[in-house]
Amino acid sequence: MSAPLSTILPQTAVRGARQATLAAVFERAGPGLHTGRRAHVRVSPAAPGAGILFRRRLKGGQIAEVPALWRHRESQPLCTALRSPDGVLVRTVEHLMAALSAHRIDNALVEIDAEELPIFDGSALPWCAGIRGAGRIEQDAPRRSLRLRRSVAVRMGERSLSVEPCDHLRVSAHLALARFPAMDWTGPVDAATFDRDLAPSRSFGRLKWAVPLKLYSFLTGKPVLRGANLRTTAGIVGSRVVGGMHVPDEPVRHRALDLVGDLALIGHPLLGHVRAAHTGHELNHALVSKLMAEPDAWELV
Question: Which residues take part in binding Zn(2+) (predicted)?
Fold first, then answer.
């Protein structure tokens, strides 16, 4: 079942916009980037107002639930993780969250039987394919978006991130890696643009840093990059990506992809122009936290 035309229209502040969920269930499975353990994920429709809810099935049959909201976010290496009220972790949620946000899916139940969502090839394409295959249906409830009244910005050294008023979500991202020309991407975040420009971009890293991190993971028992290899990430050696880039300027596009997923933890569609320079998960969440702490900077419409 293909998605209706409404899923590929820009995410603008439309009077009378309705919430939406999936029209059917879809499932995906694969190993996680950090744990290396295989996980099975089932993404189902949810009622109006439910938002995105992660439900982790534990050994012994127990269930832990955590809403995909910024206040449940926990800092973890090289990913976005959520901690449930009873202490259970769900990690590497950013690619699925980005795909759901870009496709304007407001309500969904995400069931998982492991700690970490699958990484696949490092891109968001399998999530996008699942969403398109399931289809999207609008619900009998208004869709409220977070619209900026003024700009908000955060900075960490050379890293900077800001958001300013705009009638739709737009991202302008910049990244400079050693031995590479400066990389830039800018565009609206709607389903068509996301699937074409951002979803194919893969998680990336320099191979010279991956080996020490894998050794660290082995020695400490902490799950870091145990599932990382040239099938699940874009490996950088010197001034090249092993096997070539899947899209032009792939690293900066992947930073933009992660940013969209992290912004989705606001819990409402964001209407604003986000400008990012060398951003990453920590800075993304710093912006979300600052924005939420300054309610005079935005309004729900």
Answer: 95, 254, 258
Q: Is 0.85 topped by the overall pTM?
A: yes
Straight-line distance from the first to the last Cα atom of the chain, in angstroms, rounded to the nearest whole number: 31
Concerning whether 268 is annotated as a catalytic residue, the answer is no
Domain extents in the chain: 5-144
How would you list the strands of the sheet with 79-83, edge to edge?
73-76, 79-83, 89-91
pLDDT digit string (tens) for the chain, length 301 residues: 333 333 333 444 445 799 999 999 999 999 999 999 999 999 999 999 999 999 999 988 899 999 999 999 999 999 999 999 999 999 999 999 999 999 999 999 999 999 999 999 999 999 999 999 999 999 999 999 999 999 999 999 999 999 999 999 999 999 999 999 999 999 999 999 999 999 999 999 999 888 888 888 888 888 999 999 999 999 999 999 999 999 999 999 999 999 999 999 999 999 999 999 999 999 999 999 999 999 999 999 9
Which residue positions form the known binding site for Zn(2+)? 95, 254, 258
Single-letter residue type at 31: P
> Can you tell me whether residue 34 is helix, strand or coil?
coil
User: Which tokens hold the place of 267?
Assistant: 């819990």
Tokens 């039987």 sit at which residue?
Answer: 113
**5-144, superfamily in CATH?**
lpxc deacetylase, domain 1 (3.30.230.20)
- Among residues 174, 273, 278, 281, the one annotated as catalytic is 281
